[in-house]
Amino acid sequence: MLRISNKRLYSSASNLIKTPLYEAHIELGGKMVPYAGFEMPVLYKSQTHIESHNWVRSKVGLFDVSHMLQHKVTGTGARNLLQKITPIDLNTLPVNTSSLSVLLNENGGVIDDCIITKHGEDDYYMVTNAGCREKDVAFIKKELENFNDAKHETFESTLLAIQGPKAQEILQKFTNEDLSKIYFGQTKFINLSPISETIHLARSGYTGEDGFELSIPSSNAQESKQSLDFFKTLINEYPDVVKPIGLAARDSLRLEAGMCLYGHELTEEITPIEASLSWLIPKTRRESNNEFNGASKILGQLKDKSSFTHRRIGVSSKGPSPRDGNKIFSEDGSVEIGYITSGSPSPTLGGNVAQAYIDKKFKIGSNVKIEIRGKLRDGSIAKLPFVQSNLYKP
After folding, report:
1. What are the residue boundaries of the Aminomethyltransferase C-terminal domain, all occurrences included (predicted)?
2. Which of 68, 184, 193, 280 is a good FRET partner for 206, with 20 to 30 A between their CA atoms?
3. Residue 356 near residue 294 (C-beta atoms within 8 A)
4. Eight-class DSSP state of 108
5. What is the CATH number of the domain that holds 345?
């Protein structure tokens, strides 16, 4: 898998980057919007946001996530580098298995969230967010100065997420690999008809539904055409099951599933503990080998819960949907107790769902007021996730 030429990715009319699937988005009537420097589909013609969302919950949605940045970290120092900049324990992660983690600054704040896959003791694959490309690379490059025996490089390819309860049924038609033997969090290099190159498959996703993420080589025109043809074939041959889905539904799906979005729930000022992601720091790294960035603050928060006042939690409401930045008050409206980080109407549940940082003194089930459009609206603190995930596990 090689780096794609920037010339091929950039539009002649603007500086927005086009993914290898751009042509299909236009043919399918995608409403294109600027997103993290890319031109991405937010919605497709003949689909409402609610229809797109519900389609993924019941059938199969295709998401072009080629804007995400893919990394290779290799060499005898690769593991030590990754365990310095994240709290993951790669000693206990099995080969061909992936895990969510976070890039940490020296104060324990989150530079970005990421998925790290272990392909070997000295061979790792990582995916980070599109909007953090430049700062992530700069951060890793700086940290790399202390690890002469590690090598880091980024590459571009078609990155396609196939999500929904019928994802395995559809994808199985294109491979002889028995997908039923690959569980959530596991990865494998497989052959996928009619693509000539081996592709990287991960049973993963960002919707709460079962599904896969495919990294398909697209380093030249021929490879790009193969990924484009595959995308179109999935839609054209199985129109009653498969539809392309845009950014709007991707956001509401992840919100219902209680998943974080960088720049909203996660920032460089917020630690994983405050973000209710304590599970990202395994027991082995709490007890030993804990010289990761920000370890002093993070481990201190784990031991002393009184050392921080707010934590990430859910909020449900009726009426106008809460949005990023809306203030949250106590039930009588007298005390400001937190703020919304992201919110949306919930197609699955009705009403609205949101994530927020709220004073820990206020428990799940507590009634609150949310300031929306200059008025205080009723809401309540809710447990995350709002919709239980349907992940494929043994």
Report:
1. 318-387
2. 193
3. no
4. S
5. 2.40.30.110
pTM over 0.90: yes
Asked if omega into 282 is within 30° of 0 (cis), the reply is: no
* C-beta separation of 153 from 71 below 8 A: yes
The per-residue pLDDT for range 88-125, each reduced to its tens digit, is: 999 999 999 999 999 999 999 999 999 999 999 999 99
Are 265 and 358 part of one and the same domain? yes
Number of domains in the chain: 2
385: preceding bond cis by omega (within 30 degrees): yes
Angle (deg, nearest 10), helices 78-85 and 133-144: 120
Residue 282 belongs to a domain: yes
Whether 38 is in a domain gets the answer yes
Per the listing, tokens 């447990």 go with: 383
What lies within 8 Å, CB to CB, of 86 at 6+ separation is 101, 102, 103, 104, 114, 116, 292
Tokens of 382: 């809710």
**282 and 237 within one domain:** no
Name the DSSP letter for residue 232.
H
213 known member of a binding site: yes
How many beta carbons lie within 10 A of that of residue 60, not counting itself? 26
Q: Do 53 and 184 have their domain in common? A: yes
324 and 354 Cβ atoms separated by less than 8 Å: no
* Domain end among 208, 239, 255: 255
Q: Which burial class, exposed, middle or buried, applies to 360 when counting CB atoms under 10 A from its CB (0-12, 13-18, 19+)?
A: middle
